[in-house]
Predict the structure of Bug family tripartite tricarboxylate transporter substrate binding protein.
Amino acid sequence: MHRRHFISLAPAALAAPWAHAQGGWPTQQIRWVVPYPAGGGTDALARVISEAMRPGLNQQVIVVDNRPGASTNIAGELVATAKPDGYTVMSADNAILAYNEHLFSKLRFDPAKSFTYIGAFGRFPLALVVTPKFPAQTLKEFLAYVRAHPGKVNYASPGNGSPHHLAMELFKNRTGTFVTHIPYRGAAPAMQDVMSGQVDCMFLDLPAGLPTIESGKVRALAIGSAQRVPQLPNLPTLTESGVKDSEVYAFQGLLGPAGMPADVVAKLNGALNAALKAPVVVQRMHDYGMEAQPGTPQQFFDMSRAEARRWGPVIKSAGVKLD
């Protein structure tokens, strides 16, 4: 795959073998790859954002193509090897941008070199929740209970290597505690068993968990954002509760194959940033507990690589491997 510099950005991440797009790009449908099944939060967000981007893209239709599997690597390989003409893009999150290079011994793409970074959508924090039956009302009480009952407390996650799993590994590292991991195949069954009391706790993402928290079906103890979130103003952050260097959140953004033309990237980035201000997108992000992050391709690239560096030692320390 040939790569040249994209303006002043990271040389391998945002490069353009074609100096300019052909004609009045876009002139045809754009394929938007989503690395998860249809009907989930990532899929729904891609559809609402892509529709809101149409006014900035000559009203061209964006077709969502769901390609789940292999912890987003199937979609990643597909996009990394696509023609870099701007007609193939993808939703990307922590997995492909920060985790998988540490979770898999071999990848068929390099997150820092195989993609053009277009722009971030936003991020949403994860909250530590317990079953309503759990004998702790605060994070301080939770930590005291865990330390008094070593090996007796367990936690659920949607699967090995998920943000929820790694968030708890970071939490354990920062607090010097041990809780037993019970991986599930997806967030819904994990959350169901925490609600019923079959499992004690988990880190829960706000898009899936906000209604469950608000209804009292689980008890939230702390949230992994830098500041409290408006949807749960009374919920303290992990930092407020005494756990330092413990921000845990998932983030998403838009990628394309390495080597996209600079003017196509600029047009996509502009359309994306405008879409993030559209009322329908603002409302959807609020419903999901997401913080919008409009910005430049360089900012998206820098954030992604910083997250990869942050999570590498956590994954190595926990001994998590997916192959």
